[in-house]
Amino acid sequence: MRQRLGRLGFYLLVAVILIYAVFPFYYAIVTSLKTGTDLFRVDYFPFSLSWENYASLFQHQPFARNILNSIAVAVAVVALSLLLGVTAAFALGRIHFRGRGLLLFTILSVSMFPQVAVLSGMFELIRALDIYNNLLALVFSYMIFTLPFTVWVLTTFMRDLPVELEEAAIMDGASPWVIVTRVFMPLMWPALVATGLLAFIQAWNEFLFALTFTLTEEQRTVPVAIALLSGGSQYELPWGNIMAASVTVTAPVVGLVLIFQRRIVSGLTAGALKG
């Protein structure tokens, strides 16, 4: 009896957490399908379906261009983070040198600074590089908080790979680059998927740097585009369009997480489980 009550309590707790996490997104979907005065009526089920908000979203502002900007920036950030992260992880995880632990701690400590603390210095650096109001500015700035996490996770994973594989490759005359790309990377897919997807989500959702380092609508990413949506007057907010935009940019991320959830969990826990 006690075991059944414990199991029932566990399922109830899971249900409460699931409702708490999923309900805001569900209500955004319901609201995005409303128009007119229906937007201000509280409904928990879509009694009528209208795609007017989604059509208006792409007709009256360059939202499609904003989505492409976010995709381009996020993909570039993931590619650079994984490339630099794998090579750095090989050096920090497989090569013994003095100060390795201190260097790894320093890399991780960079991500502890809040974005606003480095905003002014990053702004001056981007102006000096002449990439203000350019997507390269976002790629460059996003590496600050994606690269340290990527290096840390991949280093932990790289450190636990069998030494015999590396020794066998060295005996066959393989170079360090061949060892990384041909021997280690096929074994690191769980960690690569986990860190790559988390870096993608961070770059996709980032707002402060995107608002500061872009000026025109053609260069803005989706978080800034959603924040700057306006209605017919200065004090009118198109709630239907805002909800439609939120659903549009959230659904792909939710889909990616659901598809790769097992690899995410295995990638993030591999270092802890291997000891």
Give descriptors for this structure.
globular; 275 residues; MetI-like fold; mainly alpha; 13 helices
What is the strand tally? Answer: 0
Question: In the residues, how many domains can be counted?
Answer: 2
Oligomer: single chain
Classify the fold: give the CATH topology of the largest domain: MetI-like fold
N-to-C SSE string, H for helix and E for strand: HHHHHHHHHHHHH
What is the CATH C-level name of the largest domain? Mainly Alpha
- CATH level 4 superfamily of the largest domain: MetI-like
Provide the β-strand percentage band: under 5%
Number of helices: 13
Which blocks of ≥5 consecutive residues have pLDDT under 50?
Answer: none
Separation, N- and C-terminal Cα atoms: 38 Å
Query: Globular, elongated, flat, extended or rod-shaped: what is the shape?
Result: globular
The radius of gyration is 23 Å
Q: Can you tell me about this structure?
A:
The protein has 275 residues and is mainly alpha-helical. It folds into two domains: 1-50, no CATH class; 56-274, MetI-like (MetI-like fold). It is 74% helix and 0% strand. It is built from 13 helices and no strands. It has helices at residues 2-32, 52-59, 63-94, 100-110, 115-128, 135-159, 163-171, 176-184, 189-205, 208-213, 222-227, 239-259, 261-274. Helix 2 (52-59) packs across helix 12 (239-259).
